[in-house]
Specification:
By secondary structure, the chain is of the alpha+beta class. It folds into two domains: 81 residues, Winged helix-like DNA-binding domain superfamily/Winged helix DNA-binding domain (Arc Repressor Mutant, subunit A, Orthogonal Bundle); 176 residues, GAF domain (Beta-Lactamase). 40% of the residues lie in helices and 19% in strands. A six-stranded antiparallel sheet has the order 7-6-5-10-9-8, with helices on both faces. It has a two-stranded antiparallel sheet with strand order 1-2. Strands 3-4 form a two-stranded antiparallel ribbon. Strand 3 and strand 4 form a beta hairpin. Helix 2 crosses helix 3. The N terminus is likely disordered. It holds the Pfam family IclR_C.
Length: 282
């Protein structure tokens, strides 16, 4: 936003940081604040410490340490246990951490990754999660091409006939897959839909081994989708990322390059939400 100051100076663009923000030298560090954050981080790693222990381990005088702790206590960041005479992390630390978790929501973190995937692949990029035996599409960045796939947020698709659905199924344990297969017959949508449990199971194994799944005209004729799972901190597949487009552009010859881009995007999103795709559950 631009604005005009009272003195009639030229418009200025509001800035979120100064020009020298890259400068992390001592002149730009508030020493007292830095010391307080050091105490706060140290206490978070080993709670329930008395004043003298904190002072000794952080090489500070007890009087300095006490002033830091009292200041943090006034903001609710630390608590003092009067019975045991020890200091703990306070409730405000949890509140602040919870706000960070809101910022790191899956959809918000996925948006720039989806946008980059669309630009790299030239095809529509999608994000979906599993809900009640279906894929629920929660975000999408459309390609600029005139012919394109369209799965607006809120769209539901069957797991067995979806790239994201098969990427998620491929990470489920045998018992859960067997339960899924027993709950309802596999509906046919096109001549390419996998409606045999044995065929689908074999396809899921291939998807798991290579790290991505393919929907080859299994839901819509003339459309192909390539998808990879996104993992959380527990190594569980909680979402899938995909690119989808017409077979005239997403042909068999493009699968190798597109799958590399999709898998890279899934890894990036996994890392962004604190997950690790290399530590996925067996």
């Amino acid at each position: 936003m631009k604005f005009q100051d009272n003195a009639g100076n030229s418009s200025r663009k509001a800035r979120g940081r100064p020009r020298d923000w890259h400068d992390k030298t001592a002149q730009n560090i508030i020493k007292s604040l830095d010391r307080a954050m050091e105490v706060f981080e140290f206490l978070s790693e080993g709670q329930g410490k008395p004043l003298t222990t904190l002072a000794n381990e952080l090489h500070q005088s007890p009087s300095t340490m006490y002033r830091v702790l009292v200041t943090l206590e006034s903001r609710g960041l630390v608590d003092f246990d009067v019975i045991d005479q020890v200091w703990h992390i306070g409730p405000k630390a949890f509140i602040i951490g919870s706000r960070f978790l809101l910022r790191t929501s899956l959809v918000e973190r996925a948006r720039p990754i989806l946008r980059k995937l669309m630009e790299v692949s030239g095809e529509t990029a999608n994000l979906g999660i599993e809900r009640n035996g279906h894929v629920l599409f929660v975000s999408q960045v459309e390609t600029h091409a005139s012919i394109r796939a369209f799965f607006p947020p809120g769209t539901l698709s069957q797991l067995h006939a979806s790239g994201i659905g098969k990427a998620l199924l491929s990470q489920m344990g045998p018992d859960r897959v067997a339960r899924f297969l027993s709950e309802a017959p596999l509906e046919r949508f096109t001549d390419f839909t996998l409606t045999s449990p044995d065929e689908l199971t074999a396809d899921l194994k291939r998807a798991r081994d290579r790290g991505y799944a393919i929907d080859g005209e299994e839901r819509n004729s003339g459309m192909r989708c390539i998808a990879a799972p996104v993992f959380d901190i527990h190594g569980e597949a909680i979402a899938g990322i995909s690119v989808s487009g017409p077979t005239s552009r997403v042909g068999t010859g493009q699968i190798s390059d597109l799958s590399n881009a999709v898998v890279a995007a899934a890894h990036e999103l996994s890392a962004a939400i604190g997950g690790d795709s290399t530590q996925r559950r067996p």
